[in-house]
Amino acid sequence: MTGSVKVAPTARNDRRDHLVGVATNQVTILIGVMVILVGIFSLLEPKFFSVPTANNILTDWGSVALIAVGQTFVIISGGIDLSVGAIVGLSGVVAAWTMANGLGLDQTVKGADAAPGLVVGALVAVGVGLGVGLVNAFLINVLKIVPFIATLATMGACLGFSVIISSGAPIGSANDFSLISAMDPKANPFSWTVLGVIIVIAIAGLFLHKSRFGLYTYAIGSNSFAASAAGINVKRHLTMVYALSGALAGLAGMFVYIRLGAGSPSSGTGRELDAIAAVVIGGASLMGGIGRIWGTILGALILFTVQSGLIMIGVAPDWKKVVVAVLIAAAVSAQVLQNRNGRK
Amino acid sequence: MTGSVKVAPTARNDRRDHLVGVATNQVTILIGVMVILVGIFSLLEPKFFSVPTANNILTDWGSVALIAVGQTFVIISGGIDLSVGAIVGLSGVVAAWTMANGLGLDQTVKGADAAPGLVVGALVAVGVGLGVGLVNAFLINVLKIVPFIATLATMGACLGFSVIISSGAPIGSANDFSLISAMDPKANPFSWTVLGVIIVIAIAGLFLHKSRFGLYTYAIGSNSFAASAAGINVKRHLTMVYALSGALAGLAGMFVYIRLGAGSPSSGTGRELDAIAAVVIGGASLMGGIGRIWGTILGALILFTVQSGLIMIGVAPDWKKVVVAVLIAAAVSAQVLQNRNGRK
Amino acid sequence: ASGDSTGGSAADEEITIAFVMGAESDPFFQAMKVGAEEEAAAQGVTLVWQGDPSNYSAETQIPIVDAVLANQPTALVLIPTDPVALQASVDKAVAAGVVVANVDTRVDDLSDVLTFITGDNNDGGSKAADALAAKIGYEDGGSYEVVVGLTSPTATTNVGRLDGFTAQVEAKYPGISIVDVAYSESNPEKAATNVNNWLTKFPGLDGIFAIDGTNGSGAAAALEAKGLDGTIGLVGYDAYPDNVAKIKSGIFTALIAQDPAAEARLAIKSIVEFIREGKTSTKAEVVIPNVVLDETTSADDLSKYTYVAN
Amino acid sequence: MSGELIYEVENVSKNYGSVVALDGASLKLHAGEVVGLVGDNGAGKSTLVKVLSGAHQPDAGRILLDGKERHWGSPREALDAGIETLYQDSGLAPHLTVSENVFLGRELVAPGLLGKLGFLAKKNMAREAHEDLERVGIAVPASSRSISQLSGGQRQAVAIGRAVSWARKVIILDEPTNHLGARQAGEVLEVIKAAKAKGLGVIFISHTLPHVLEVTDRIVVLRLGRIVMDAPTSEFNSDRLLGTITGSISAAGAEGE
Amino acid sequence: MSGELIYEVENVSKNYGSVVALDGASLKLHAGEVVGLVGDNGAGKSTLVKVLSGAHQPDAGRILLDGKERHWGSPREALDAGIETLYQDSGLAPHLTVSENVFLGRELVAPGLLGKLGFLAKKNMAREAHEDLERVGIAVPASSRSISQLSGGQRQAVAIGRAVSWARKVIILDEPTNHLGARQAGEVLEVIKAAKAKGLGVIFISHTLPHVLEVTDRIVVLRLGRIVMDAPTSEFNSDRLLGTITGSISAAGAEGE
Ligand SMILES: Nc1ncnc2c1ncn2[C@@H]1O[C@H](COP(=O)(O)OP(=O)(O)OP(=O)(O)O)[C@@H](O)[C@H]1O
Ligand SMILES: Nc1ncnc2c1ncn2[C@@H]1O[C@H](COP(=O)(O)OP(=O)(O)OP(=O)(O)O)[C@@H](O)[C@H]1O
Ligand SMILES: [Mg+2]
Ligand SMILES: [Mg+2]
Fold first, then answer.
1. Which residue's CA lies nearest to atom 27 of ligand 1?
2. Neighbours of E (≥3 Cβ pairs closer than 8 A)?
3. d(CA A127, CA A118)
4. Which of E13, E18, E89, E221 to mutate to test the interface with A (most CBs of A within 10 A)?
5. Pocket around ligand 1: residues whose beta carbon is below 6 Å from it?
6. What total number of domains does chain B contain?
7. Domain of residue D167, CATH code
8. Is D193 inside a domain boundary?
9. What are the beta bridge partners of residue C254?
10. C-alpha of residue C81 to centroid of ligand 2, in Å
11. E67 touches chain A (CB under 8 A)
């Protein structure tokens, strides 16, 4: 073909490429880490390898997985969202307050009659998270505050408001939640709420990896000048990313509310760090442009497997922080092998 | 001159350049913010404008300024150090433990006789901080763990160790510190310890802005490939940067120990966020390559002026977090005017 | 109390008691651990001591209780961080045939709980008010200013103490006004900052109620630095060794001490008794009184009530 | 010469702080015309490009497209108006693949509901990216590799392919032949000629004067942010062009057009 | 031809994952010699440069300096041995000033104790940077401006100045004339000639074949990571060189030297 700007074809070895790819693949390594952890814990405490333990781990995993998925979008876009933990607390408190005071729902409602309350609660919780996410986006896009400080500020404000609304004490739930956590934890590691989380995450994962929304998130984190030069409305997209992160944190607030049976202002304390740790263990780069949903999911699962395992094998509480630190460092450094297509 | 690769000289207006420079200068804006804050608080509560208040603010500022200065180096180099708050607690506890149990120093020593204890304590505290900094550097350089996760892990480990060593309770001091805080807070806003902090910061500032060490820190944060291509030993330099940050946090631990008269494991709780906030309010970029000591110092001063001011004007404690969030957002967004020479 | 059938039959099996407390970094729980370990050794049972390293919160405690129950202990001593949120965990334990006791704090529904042993936070708060009023030489018609250093808006123990303190002040010392409160967020340096600012803002300040050990440490340091120790009344809570030493030097007017070790010992003793003999002499609710430590307290009592860890 | 006047800037100025990068520059572009924009390093060429592409807002001056005044708030608006730009640097996202970069901002979506939700037709894009690049005369290996794994010239080829395959009205190429091999550079010139033949207006920036002389209809010379010469290419030869750029020949023909 | 053999690589190979970027390439450089390294985009030139400069470690092969085998653990070691490199991209720190970039890694320190502590002589550096750049034939405005405030060509000029002013033994220039104006590019060629006259060995990479033919003593052609031709410049003309690069002329002379 005449006039074609042909660059030299490259010598490749596709089979070797594929094998190397599998071996150094982020997800493969994480699954390996997971298997090793489960193996060690089960050896030290045979009761660890059981359905109830899996159920415990999955239940713990649920709330953090939700916010970690939102955080994955934020981190891939090159930002960070420190407000998610506080949003969990605030949205739970506001949902509880609304049901108890705003709607006057009765605490004794049982079974299917609880459904309307749940729906209202979930809407309110997600709405609160969404609102905080939009405030984050405003601070970042309009006031040009870097995400770390912008979301640190909203984190403080959310903590403040949840205390103001709740006077510091948990607000009791207006509903009985047995209908949504009714699976038998002895026979089945999943509960209805965890299944709900998995569905939400699957949808988010599809959007991240298969849709235009996800592609733009990667593009902005990779090179925001290039993204805007390609016609992407960077501000609008970042607004959606922070709104998504906030909304998922609101949903996590509802999850925690259902679990605790109460909206507690302190219920999300420190969860932002768990979420960020899960995302980074999952292989994302805090510089943006890199990260995968599968990695995040496994990262969160590893975190909670470690937490549960250490208690079951009887590590003393004061040593737990030290051991967790060592295990996380080990898990992350297992990825050194992995060949990232990072910038510089 | 023959053979010279001359690029076109640029039309410049140096006087205008200078004026624009002063008006949009980071430090100028921060001083403006400071003046406005002091003005508002003094109007609302005349007692705010007093030597004792200045003394309070400077005393609070001392410990965070120390770790914020270390953090400035880390952030300019393109990293982050979340372990500094925990180092403050650990180094204070270890210093107190060493004096009380290791050396058997007497709690009742007074006046100049206390000096040896102080020197030993300071050496131990700085040594502990330095050690943790070196562990951070090991995790980052050798195990290739990103700074956020590496220092999050050491933060957990430090918290764990300080509880293990102290059983959670403060360890009483082996000395009477009246000799080093003997200035009259009614007549003089400075104490000897604060003057000590100022000297340490001045030296650190000189090294950051005038020495090769500082230049390399900027170079690595600006483009680490270019820095290593220029022959800079990037790993060795980062090791020194994290060691410095750790050592300054250790010194801050000693400062807090002197202030409280005891080594308490919880004494640095959350200080890493204060320090990072101070650095960013001071104009540094979390992407690296940008930041100044003066900015950090003023950033920390603004933080504590706000904290003190809110107590003095009687803002209800539940609302304080919200108001702090709003004020920080306002202070940072005042810098939007400022024209950063940022990358992209 | 529980009438569960597993009660008496476990006499010959090895007894494992899981003890899930609030936050390891709090010396209160460290002192409790000492009591629990002593009693467990004395009774010849296995103790599993668990809890969050530093967070006193329901969301971190529930997974710990879940994991501990997965190990199928014989009994569970629980210090619920939230009365509503931990109810489900207690129900779950009882359903699995685990004997449950509450110490220090309780769940809403005590009907399946063997016993609830506590110090009385409300009573502690009102004793603190008495001690402070005595120190500032309260007289009717006078007017006095005091402040209260709190931990965080969500710390549940703060609530009872503050309620007791406020109620006692309103009832007996109407001339005392609580002019401000502030949070230390578990950081003694922040507690010192709060006190420093109060001293500037309220030059005539008469007294400080430091609601926990951290606030006590910070307030003591701030008063010492300004040379005001002894002139301003300072009543603290919890007998940290360091703070107890400062009663003698006159910095603390008084400390309200609980007896966490005794609470733990009684809980373990009752459980073992119930499992081995099918019943226990311990009542369904036991209140272990608070002690006021001040300069009149004997040296023996001072060391007896000081929180020690091993 | 050639077609209608399509794109025009009048008296645009732009400062970076105290640095005057553009000082009242004016430029006209007709359909089917290739204008060469030349000037010494730092003359202001890339700044003018960014004003034309909507990446920068000028401090003063007017921008007219098809005779109507326009204000570009963002590159999107200029792109929507049919103006495609190759920037001198950082126009690609290093973590995205070749085909993702080529399609960025105009992705192909799956058919039906999924498409409405923004789900991508990745395979189609990979294939069409390859075809598109070939159609405009550029071939790049393995469109599934990420940009960060390409050599300097390979990256440049993708960037050119991107700009050329989408343009509907105007193409602005800021030093497109940088990093390209001799043959590839020649092929870029062919691509420019093809675009001209299709009736597009092209602004071509280069320091390789023979290329400029070969492919342009008119040459605009910038010096210190000012247009010092604007004349048909036929009026230049290699030496005169170099002299005008460096200033050793005074810009007598500055008024010429 | 010219002086002693100073720098040599034998049979070096380098893969990026499955991409074979260098496949047993060998190259010799003598004192006072300019070697042109040419090849199509993606041929492996920049990869070879990085192996020579110590930025990458080869997967196989030997590196010899002055006849002794060396292993570069980092660029520092190669720099210390007198080998200076201009990379195709990202060789400058954007936040540092022109003079800081020129002196990076070899700062001038203040006299006395302050100097021992690493305190810098900033004014001296600013002045000397300017002088150094002029001495090697390059002038850049205002050495106190940061790199991010320069145009593409201005940046390239600083990078060249940096490499040229420090070299003691070998200079490796990867596409130095990219982004440069026609006159400035000509001046870079003069700089290369001056370096050669001083007895340095120079490796010059460029896609501008006339430049290569003008300034080199010997030309090495890379294709798909292999050396397909290594012959004195006198054996080439423009067409033969282009043909060898693209592969349309089979590399009969591959053994020649
Ligand atoms: N970081 C990387 N990861 C994977 N492949 C790479 C990487 N860098 C380069 N390559 C590949 O290695 C081969 C050689 O690249 P190199 O940069 O050495 O080429 P080059 O000869 O310098 O080309 P150009 O003239 O375009 O600069 C190319 O096929 C390129 O795609
Ligand atoms: N971000 C910036 N901040 C300050 N000055 C800048 C900035 N970008 C460019 N300049 C200055 O503006 C002037 C014009 O720069 P521009 O990039 O438009 O030049 P150019 O003609 O494209 O040069 P080149 O041929 O080297 O690419 C130069 O003096 C340059 O130093
Ligand atoms: Mg340019
Ligand atoms: Mg190259």
1. D152
2. A, B, D
3. 14
4. E18
5. A 10; D 149-154, 179; E 16, 19, 21, 39, 41-47, 88
6. 1
7. 3.40.50.300
8. yes
9. C235, C294
10. 62
11. no
CATH number, residue B314: 1.10.3470
Amino acid letter, residue D23 = D
Q: State the count of interchain CB pairs (< 8 A) between A and D.
A: 130
B88: Cβ contacts below 8 Å, ≥ 6 apart: B63, B67, B249, B252, B253, B256, B267, B268, B271
Tell me what pLDDT residue E141 has. 63
Q: In this predicted model, which residue has the larger pLDDT, C296 or D133?
A: C296
Q: In terms of DSSP H, where are the helices of chain E?
A: 45-53, 75-80, 98-103, 112-116, 122-135, 152-166, 182-197, 209-215, 238-246
- Overall pTM > 0.80: yes
Range of the domain at B121: 48-343
- Considering the domain boundaries, does residue A329 fall inside one? yes
- For residue E128, is it within any domain? no
Predicted local confidence at residue A9, as pLDDT? 44
Which ligand gives the minimal distance to the CA of D245? 2
Residue B279 pLDDT: 94
CB contact under 8 A, C85 and A261: yes
C251 Cα–ligand 4 center, Å: 73
Q: Does B47 touch chain E (CB under 8 A)?
A: no
Among the partner residues A156, A280, A318, nearest to B146 by beta-carbon distance: A280
Classify strands E5-16 and E60-65 as parallel, antiparallel or unpaired.
Answer: antiparallel
Contact C33, A300 (CB under 8 A): no
* pLDDT over 50 (residue A8): no
Domain assignment present for residue A16? The answer is no
CA E68 to CA E91: how far, in whole Å? 28
* Span B122-179, pLDDT tens digits: 999 999 999 999 999 999 999 889 899 899 999 999 999 999 998 888 888 766 665 5
Rounded to an integer, the average pLDDT of E147-166 is 87
Is D246 in contact with E183 (Cβ distance < 8 A)? Answer: yes
Residue B36 belongs to some domain of the structure: no
Instruction: Please indicate, yes or no, if residue D252 is contained in any of the structural domains.
Output: yes
Does D123 map to a domain? no
Q: Does B9 touch chain E (CB under 8 A)?
A: yes
Chains that touch D (3 or more CB pairs under 8 A): A, B, E
Question: Which B-chain residues 181-210 have CB contacts (< 8 A) with chain E?
Answer: 206-207, 210
User: Of D95, D151, D177, D178, which is best to mutate to test ligand 1, by the most ligand atoms within 8 angstroms of its C-beta?
Assistant: D151
Structural domain containing residue D170:
14-91+151-256
The CA-based dihedral angle spanning residues E224, E229, E233, E235, taken in that order and rounded to the nearest 10 degrees: -130
Q: Which of D13, D47, D204 to mutate to test the pocket of ligand 2 (most atoms within 8 A of CB)?
A: D47
Q: Do B341 and E75 touch (CB under 8 A)?
A: no
CA-based end-to-end distance of chain E: 10
Tokens of A317: 């509480």
E133 pLDDT higher than 80? no
> Which tokens is C310 given?
């091993």
Q: Is C273 helix (H, G, I), strand (E, B) or coil?
A: helix
Ligand 2 atom nearest to E154, measured from its CA = 26
Residue ID of nearest Cα to ligand 2 atom 22: D46
Label residue C151 by pLDDT band (50, 70, 90): confident
Count of structural domains within chain E: 1
Evaluate if residue A316 carries a pLDDT over 90: no
pLDDT, one tens digit per residue, over A76-108 is: 999 999 999 999 999 999 998 888 877 766 666
pLDDT of residue D135: 63
pLDDT at A339 over 80: no
Nearest in space to C212 (alpha carbons), one of C160, C171, C250, C135: C160
Q: How far apart are CA B333 and CA A201, in angstroms?
A: 34
Reduced to 3 states, what is the DSSP secondary structure of residue D222? strand
Residue bearing tokens 């373990």? C268
Contact E183 D42 (CB under 8 A): no
Q: What is the mean pLDDT of residues D15-25?
A: 89
